[in-house]
Design a protein that fits this description.
The protein is 23% helix and 36% strand. The strands form 2 sheets. It has a 7-stranded mixed beta sheet with strand order 1-2-3-7-6-5-4. The structure holds biotinyl-5-AMP. The site of biotinyl-5-AMP has 29 residues, from α1, β3, β6 and β7.
Length: 197
């Protein structure tokens, strides 16, 4: 489904059946995680939501799929930012429901906020690659997803600061665990915002 202007592609996708794909030219209320905003002027980005079967590792699988679709040395920052030369070029928002997951992906193409990056690629071709990669990685085994995520990661091995509700952890991002949690100095971190130090 292609729509010119929506509040958020997530809102349109939510009631649709598994397999649906919603693409918009513009979002008046594009969202990030934790109720943050996702900004992009009309026609400057790939803004898409996929309705997929429930999958506990979907957020990492979608990151892997998006990095593979983008190519151009796009790397992953935990939990699922897409980075181009260290700057954010895209983001992923997964909403898990009992019977399905709504996976929203935004990738900057011709505009980015200050400090962020753009990927100079054709939107429809990128969407097609993303569709193929997401199909592949959302049905891959957890072991395969985690292994590829590790290879594409820009976070592992770095000193990081993780900000969670009311708590800050600083340490070396050593690995990701079986459920996708970040292991910082031996301790698992399940949610939070990461700053690469
Ligand atoms: C994300 O959240 O990175 C997930 C973004 C998902 C957007 C897609 S677009 C299609 C679908 N429909 C939606 O409504 N959302 C999804 P988070 O990690 O919370 O990052 C949000 C933060 O990124 C904001 O607080 C800003 O600092 C920054 N930001 C906002 N717009 C950006 C942009 N275009 N490029 C880079 N950074 C941006």
């Amino acid at each position: 489904m292609r729509i010119k202007s929506v509040t958020s592609t997530q809102d349109i996708a939510r009631p649709l059946p598994i397999g649906s794909v919603v693409v918009a030219e513009h979002q008046t209320a594009g969202r990030g995680r934790l109720d943050r905003r996702w900004e992009s002027p009309p026609g400057t980005a790939l803004l898409v939501s996929f309705v997929l079967p429930p999958n506990p590792l979907l957020s990492l699988a979608a990151g892997v799929a998006a990095a593979e679709a983008c190519g151009d040395h796009v790397r992953l920052k935990w939990p699922n930012d897409l980075l181009l030369r260290g700057a954010k070029v895209g983001g992923i928002l997964v909403e898990a429901r009992a019977a399905k997951s709504i996976c929203g992906i935004g990738i900057n193409l011709t505009w980015a906020p200050e400090g962020a990056a753009t990927l100079n690629q054709d939107r429809d071709r990128l969407l097609e690659k993303l569709r193929v990669e997401l199909e592949r990685w959302s049905s891959a085994t957890p072991v395969a997803v985690l292994a590829r995520w590790r290879e594409l990661s820009d976070t592992l091995g770095r000193r990081v600061r993780v900000e969670m509700a009311g708590r800050v952890v600083v340490g070396i991002a050593e690995d990701i665990g079986d459920n996708g949690e970040l292991i910082v100095d031996g301790k698992p971190v399940a949610f939070g915002s990461v700053i690469h130090l």
